[in-house]
Structure formats: C-alpha cells, structure tokens
UniProtKB/TrEMBL annotation:
This is Unannotated protein. It comes from freshwater metagenome. The chain crosses the membrane at residues 6-24. InterPro entries: Thioredoxin-like_sf (IPR036249), Thioredoxin_domain (IPR013766). Pfam families: Thioredoxin. Gene3D superfamilies: Glutaredoxin (3.40.30.10). Keywords: Membrane, Transmembrane, Transmembrane helix. Residues 9-140 form the Thioredoxin domain.
Length: 142
C-alpha cells in the first residue's frame, strides 16, 4: 500500500473515533460547580420576589437545528415542575456570558440553582430523564 493509502486509513480511523466520541458525549449532563457571577440574576431578569428554584440557561444560535430540539426538551421538563425557568440566549448577542462560561458549541445548557451556582452543563441535546433527575436533585429540601 502506498503512503497515500496509509494517510487515508489514518484519516478515516480518526474521523470514526471522533464520531464515536461525539455520539457518546453529546447531551450528557456533566456535574460542574461554578460559583454565582455577580450581576447574573439581574442580567437574566431573575431578581424578583420569587426567583425560580432552577434555571435552564440555554445558549443557542440562529441556524442551529439541535438548538430547536433542545428548546422543546427543556420546555417539556420546565412544564413538569413548578418554579423552573428556561431562558434561551443567542450566543451572538451575549458574548460576555459565552466567554465567561466557556461556551464553545451550541446548544449548551447550564443548570443553575436559585443562588446562581451552575451545577450541571450539557453540550448537545440533553435527555429529558437526565434533566428531570438534575432538577429533582436541586429542588430537594435538605
């Protein structure tokens, strides 16, 4: 086999490996503790008498098809719980938050408690069952 053939095989193997990695990691909730940012609740207009117990903060872009699916999944879970809020932000209009939270892909969803602490992050389309479990864990009374 020629050198070009070996290069082609290597590229195909790397592409397949990357595809498998993305398939396994997309939409998975990762635990992450990020302390509250000063002014975040005011920025998201959550500074009222009864702030939500949990907020889904979704970073999306205009032409992102998975973002539309994520919106539907988040809305479904939001409608299942009282005091849950879903906020969708366009990454182009909120570059400050994109940089602060290290958003590299859309959709990315942060799950934030009422104090403003980020507890979970999902890149890709999350599963409703995983979101429900995360909300239940954050809303349990200690």
């Amino acid at each position: 086999m020629s050198t070009g053939g070996y290069v082609l095989l290597a590229v195909l193997a790397l592409s397949a490996g990357f595809g498998i990695y993305r398939k396994l990691s997309d939409g998975k909730l990762r635990g992450e503790i990020v302390p509250p940012l000063q002014g975040l609740t005011e920025h998201l207009h959550l500074d009222h008498d009864h702030p939500p117990q949990v907020t889904f903060l979704q970073f999306s872009s205009e032409f992102c098809q998975p973002c539309r699916v994520t919106t539907r999944v988040l809305d479904e879970v939001t409608n299942s719980f009282p005091a849950i809020c879903h906020i969708e932000l366009d990454v182009v209009e909120h570059l400050d938050l994109v940089k602060t939270y290290g958003i590299t892909r859309t959709p990315t969803t942060l799950i934030i408690d009422k104090a403003g602490t980020v507890h979970f992050r999902a890149v890709g389309v999350p599963k409703a069952a995983d979101l429900t479990n995360a909300v239940s864990a954050l809303t349990e009374v200690p």
